[in-house]
Design goal:
The chain is of the alpha/beta class. It is 35% helix and 24% strand. It starts with 15 loop residues before the first strand and ends with a strand.
Length: 347
Amino acid sequence: MNEGADMRTDHGLRVVRLGLVGAGRIGSMHAGNVARHVAGAELVAVADPRGEAATALAAKYGARGLGVDELLTDPEVDGVLIASIAAVQSELIVKAAAAGKAVWCEKPASLTVEEIDRAIAATRDAGVAFQVGFNRRFAADFRAARAAVDAGAIGTPQLMRSITRDPGWPAGLQHAAGVRPWTIFRETLIHDFDTLLWLNPGAEVVEVYTRADALVAPQFKDDGLLDTAVVVLTFDNGAIATAEANFSALYGYDVRGEVFGSKGMVVAGRLPSTTAVQYDASGLHQQTMRSDEQMFRDAYVQELTDFAEVVRGDAAPPVTGEDARRALTIALAAMRSHEEQQPVRLG
């Protein structure tokens, strides 16, 4: 056990020392959360292929800027947070597992089933924990919706819905045509696929049907960079669900989940950022949320707080590699359905 493993908080928690791979927007947010808001955790190192970005972010929080491989094998790191681009996530998971580190990884955790299977096997064989960052599961309103389903208050799920509408074109995509095709399925709607699976516990998707287009930025359509999609999922318990996404919700960041069942309905998600309503000559107005960081601030903190407990050995990962695999399988089927213009059967 390294020296940091014996450190304790005022509440008796063993401090877990976390290293972060990825110093972009999401990585920077996670760094701040660990440093300021996650009880019993300390950010000790940051790595990024862009060395200067890692150095700057590490310095901001009193951590060390390291090379990626150096961080993954550092004996002072108990657990690794991976917030890199999706294309390299599975490789980093495998390397971290080989070094004996507990792993937390941003969704999707891989871009192919073969990659996620390799990551799952690597963590299992190494005997290390593997948690995936599907943040909606940690938001209070989505947790309340799942609790209502678990309690039987909604009855048998019949119709379900999950929505992701970004308030503008995602940063970087306008420079990535041909480099990040299928983003809307594997990196955006994958949140909705996980949410729908989670809100319909015990059920599996048996059919996927997609309608999608490039309506916001049609110039990227030939590169596979679609921006508008609706995916219909049929579950083996009879429930029918829709997952929809768009990259141009000018009114704000719009994320919602809904389960309609034989006994009622539960809805999660919120658009206004305040309950204050302004009344004037042009009508009624409310300020809306404009980013995931604003809407899911508490959820981002909670998922890393839970991971700290996992690293200590006090809990099992609440979102597993197998959960990520299920959502990815649906995303890949949605891509195939779009290409073939017909439903795709699973299982």
